[in-house]
Design goal:
35% of the residues are buried. Helix content is 50%, strand content 1%. It is mainly α. It has a two-stranded antiparallel ribbon. It has helices at 2-21, 40-48, 51-64, 69-74, 76-85, 89-92, 102-113, 135-146, 158-167, 170-184, 195-208, 211-218, 225-232, 237-240, 249-257, 260-273, 288-298, 330-341, 344-355, 404-407, 440-452, 455-464, and strands at residues 305-307, 317-319.
Length: 465
Amino acid sequence: MILANAFCIVLFVDEILRSLAGPPSPPGQDPHGWRVPVDCVRANELCAAEPSCSSRYRTLRQCLAGRDRNTMLANKECQAALEVLQESPLYDCRCKRGMKKELQCLQIYWSIHLGLTEGEEFYEASPYEPVTSRLSDIFRLASIFSGMDPAANSKSNHCLDAAKACNLNDNCKRLRSGYISTCSKEISATEHCSRRKCHKALRQFFDRVPSEYTYRLLFCSCKDQACAERRRQTIVPSCSYEDKEKPNCLDLRNTCRTDHLCRSRLADFHTNCQASFQSLTGCPGDNYQACLGSYAGLIGFDMTPNYVDASTTSITISPWCSCKGSGNMEEECEKFLRDFTENLCLRNAIQAFGNGTDVNLSPKNPSPPITLPPKTEKSPALPDDINDSNTMYDTSVITTCTSIQEHGPKLNKSKEQSLCYSETQLTTDIMPDQKTFVDQKAGGSRHRAGRILPVVPVLLLKLVV
């Protein structure tokens, strides 16, 4: 009799625990109400497979055609379509830079998010997935691929070494030679190059060549003007950057925003390079790598940035534009331009790469130190007889560029000093935009279940006794 009663109690408690725990989530899916972000091409496919989402998406696209946001939201059908799509995978979708269908992905993203913005925004959210890699990853790969440390051998010309390292890689050499040839080719007496073809060749180079090579060309550290001028000439600025006259910066921004790719790269730059005075480095998430990648992503578009001169004492970056003729928009124009010319995050990131350093972020909860493998013997510097395909430079004239690290970090043009930190241990980043969701109900159920479990042995013991 006692055993029968005990068995009934066990069954009763089991039923209670099952009801509190709730039904299990289907395999491969998150609990109801949670969505795993997917790229916008995949999100569009999921939406197309669902009749309700598909019809609402078509409606929204028709609503956005030739209408401003207020006019669109005044239409109840358009408003209903927008509300439905905010609950679909399309709302949270993102794109990957350089993905196979990048343009299609970005077109889908902006078709949704342009309807959510309050008119023309100064800063727009990036449509790209957050960057989780760091400069330290680039340094390791650069050392593996080129056989030398980017910050090693302080007496070498880093920009010349970067060109030689590129020439040792077939893909880098081919695409670099390709854009130099295209951007240097004279079309006619009045048109010395085709900017459109030059920009396309530059985009191919920076999208298809690993950053272990492209960063060394763009951000090599220099001590003398000959080295700094080589760095400035990396993108063949006479064709890709400079023009007869400087357009107004706000006009240039408006032109950029008419193109989905250019608009996305500019939004990504603002997201990852916007100066943050609450961080150690001046960069969002203290991630130098994200900022440098966003900067490189702008090259080959109307908003192409570059070094304004061959100065070795300060780093000043700017697109080819000015704020003349801004009228009552001059303050907004100056603010936009300062995001390039006086960008603390970008300046510190460039100097950190030149120094071969990355910020060391200590975790909040101390973890056991990671033991790094012993350093291997450094390979000798690249031989000087390796030809540099960039014939614009005379290597006999270029003197050596001494590493900034040899003399310590330099002060920026502004009063803030660059914050460069040597990496002493590997750190793991958490994606800044990725959130961990907790189902409060499910959590409460687990706690209640946890309180009931210890009671079961006591009940059984009493029955047996």
